[in-house]
C-alpha cells in the first residue's frame, strides 16, 4: 500500500496562491491516476483534480477550472496542485489520492489510497 504525504497548506487571503505537494512512497507510474480531493467542514469530500499518470490527461472540477493546475514529477514520485486566485470557498482539508485498481475512479470515485490531508484556509 502506498503512503501519501501532503504538504504546502496554509492560510492566505483571497486572490492569493498556494502550491500543494504530495510525496508518494512508490513510483507514480504504479497507479492509473492521481488526484486531489477536498472536504470543507460539514460537507462531503469533493474531487478537485485528477491526472492520468501515463497520458498526463487532466480533469478538473468546474469550480476550480482556470485557477488550479495539477501536475506530477515522476522522478520525484510527487504530485502537485498549484492553486491561484484562491477564494474563501476553497477553504477545506485537501487530500492526495492514488487509484487502487487499473481503472481511474475519476473525480467522483472513492477507490483510492488517501493521504492524511493538509489544511487550506482562505480569508476574505
From the alpha carbons, calculate the radius of gyration and give it in angstroms. Answer: 13 Å
Structural class: mainly beta
**Helix and strand run:** EEEEEEEEEEE
Strand count, sense and barrel status of the largest sheet are: 7 strands, mixed
Helix content bin: under 10%
Mean pLDDT equals 96
The shape, in one word, is globular
The proportion of strand residues reads over 45%
**DSSP summary, beta strand count:** 11
Summarize the topology.
Blueprint: E1 4-7, E2 10-13, E3 18-24, E4 33-39, E5 46-52, E6 58-60, E7 68-73, E8 78-83, E9 92-99, E10 112-114, E11 118-123
Parallel strand pairs: 2-11
Antiparallel strand pairs: 1-3, 3-8, 4-5, 4-9, 5-6, 7-8, 9-10, 9-11
Question: What would you say this structure looks like, in words?
Answer:
By secondary structure, the protein is mainly beta. It is 0% helix and 49% strand. The protein is built from no helices and eleven strands. The protein has strands spanning 4-7, 10-13, 18-24, 33-39, 46-52, 58-60, 68-73, 78-83, 92-99, 112-114, 118-123. The strands form two sheets. Strands 2, 4, 5, 6, 9, 10 and 11 form a seven-stranded mixed sheet that branches. A hairpin with a 4-residue loop joins strand 7 and strand 8 (78-83). The mean pLDDT is 96.
